[in-house]
Specification:
It contains 8 helices and 8 strands. It is an alpha/beta fold. The strands form 2 sheets. A 5-stranded mixed β-sheet has the order 1-2-3-5-4, with helices on one face. Strands 6-8-7 form a 3-stranded mixed β-sheet, with helices on one face. Strand 7 and strand 8 form a beta hairpin. Helix 6 crosses helix 8. The two termini are 45 Å apart.
Length: 243
């Protein structure tokens, strides 16, 4: 335990030391340096040892600077900030601790990119995740269909006047697909279907979307069939699509 370690190491310099420790946190309740050894660097060494121990064990440190033992509260706040302590409020707020300052353990350098990616993923909205996954699929489907023009694919998360079903395509090369509360694979299937219609349009085989694309028509059946092939091929490369 860190309190015992620090007591053994700095006992000649201490008038008091109280640290409450559990598996995930350290609460520094009191550290009092003897008058003869104040401003000699002893306090700095104690804090260096304390934060190093906390980082190794991935523990939060909480404390409340006070002038009870002769220190200046404002100077203590600045002192603790040098070791990575933050005011326990705002984005750093932890309701687990009543103390006014808190220090989260520092991560080793190899872990930082992993944690950043996890945080980025956690903070990304559901809409952002759908858009990112769909963008990859659109590129795959366009390559499969040998579509080289700038067909536009837009995801809608609210209904519009023209989008009364799951997808919409017009002959100007614009696709809109409804994505709210739909599985990614279903969204991608709709996109593939409309991209096939765009290919048919480029080939001059789709003249009237409403008429040529009626249920059961050769144009519509072809779109259904090829979209299914695209989904299966992409799914083999990206099985997460089905999760």
């Amino acid at each position: 335990m860190i309190e015992e370690i620090l007591r053994n190491r700095y006992e000649p310099y201490l008038d008091g030391l109280d640290i409450y420790e559990n598996k995930t946190s350290l609460i520094l309740s009191r550290v009092v340096i003897k008058n003869d050894f104040r401003n000699t660097g002893v306090g700095t060494k104690i804090m260096e040892d304390l934060v190093s121990y906390a980082d190794r064990n991935k523990q939060i440190i909480a404390l409340t600077p006070a002038s009870d033992f002769g220190g200046n509260k404002n100077r203590l706040v600045q002192f603790y900030k040098r070791f990575g302590f933050k005011h326990n409020k705002g984005i750093y707020k932890s309701y687990e601790f009543k103390d006014s300052m808190i220090r989260y353990p520092k991560l080793n350098e190899t872990m930082k990119p992993i944690i950043k990616n996890l945080l980025r993923e956690a903070l990304m909205s559901q809409e952002d995740k759908v858009i990112r996954q769909v963008a990859n699929f659109v590129n795959f489907a366009k390559e499969y269909l040998e579509i080289n023009d700038d067909v536009q694919v837009k995801l809608a998360f609210e209904r519009t006047e023209e989008l009364t079903t799951t997808a919409y395509y017009n002959l100007d090369g614009f696709i809109m697909v409804y994505a709210k509360d739909r599985a990614i694979i279903d969204v991608c299937r709709s996109i593939a279907h409309e991209l096939v219609h765009h290919k048919q349009n480029l080939e001059g085989r789709l003249v009237n979307v409403a008429k040529d694309g009626e249920d059961g028509s050769p144009i519509e059946n072809e779109a259904n069939s090829i979209a299914g092939v695209i989904i299966r091929k992409y799914g083999k490369l990206h099985p997460e699509l089905y999760s």
